[in-house]
Amino acid sequence: MAQFDVRDINRGSAVVSVEKLNWFNRQHILRLAATPEGLRRLADIVLDHLAGAALDGPADAAATTAEHWTRPIPEAPGAAVDREYVLRVVAAIVTDRIALLGDVSSTYRYFFREASPEQVAAIRATLAPAVAATIRHAVLPELARLPDFADEKALSACLKARLPADDPRLPAGAGPLKQKDLLQGLRSLLTGSPAGAPIATVMAVLGKQVAERRLAEC
């Protein structure tokens, strides 16, 4: 940096590639994330962005949209986001192609706010009956056996739970449920997003109480 001088830049036909800038920024994020000290620096940057983000949304409940996230995490209304919690979020998403830390408050909003009733209803409407029945009657009972959601391997095992093919709670004629279809339904309920960090990782970060409550919305 000490050798850089703006006067050395060629001013003719200058082209700025946003894609390249984002790539360099992502490499910087990955290098920081490789050490505990770097992760904490990233968490502090995210905290600054969260402090300036409009996470509380409109005061008028009627103005709430399907994309709006409302109640804060942790549960206490108006509670400040815990630094250690943000650290866990950053550690979970750093491998998820994130290039701009300022996008965390929007792209990963589900880590910090609950879905509005409208969004929950929209998500529920997209779930296939077999997926909803499997989550409600097979996956959730297995998750309930866990004392907490700290062990991602145990969580992943629970997500493989299935109902017997002849279970009357499954829709008539339902074939074997594919794991990818179940995981997509789980992701929708947990995050409202079609892609992101591994499901077990998301559940571990959210914690048992929040994750189980969201899955129960099926």
From TrEMBL:
The UniProt record lists the Aminoacyl-tRNA synthetase class I anticodon-binding domain at 81-217
- Is Nuclease among this UniProt entry's keywords? no
Keyword Protein biosynthesis in the entry? The reply is yes
A molecular function (GO) held by this record is: glutamate-tRNA ligase activity
Q: Which UniProt keywords apply?
A: Aminoacyl-tRNA synthetase, ATP-binding, Ligase, Nucleotide-binding, Protein biosynthesis
Instruction: Note the superkingdom of the native organism.
Output: Eukaryota
Query: Which residues are the signal sequence here?
Result: none
GO BP annotation list: glutamyl-tRNA aminoacylation
Gene Ontology CC annotations of this record: mitochondrion
Family affiliation: Belongs to the class-I aminoacyl-tRNA synthetase family. Glutamate--tRNA ligase type 1 subfamily.
Q: What protein am I looking at? A: Aminoacyl-tRNA synthetase class I anticodon-binding domain-containing protein
Which species is this record about?
A: Fonticula alba
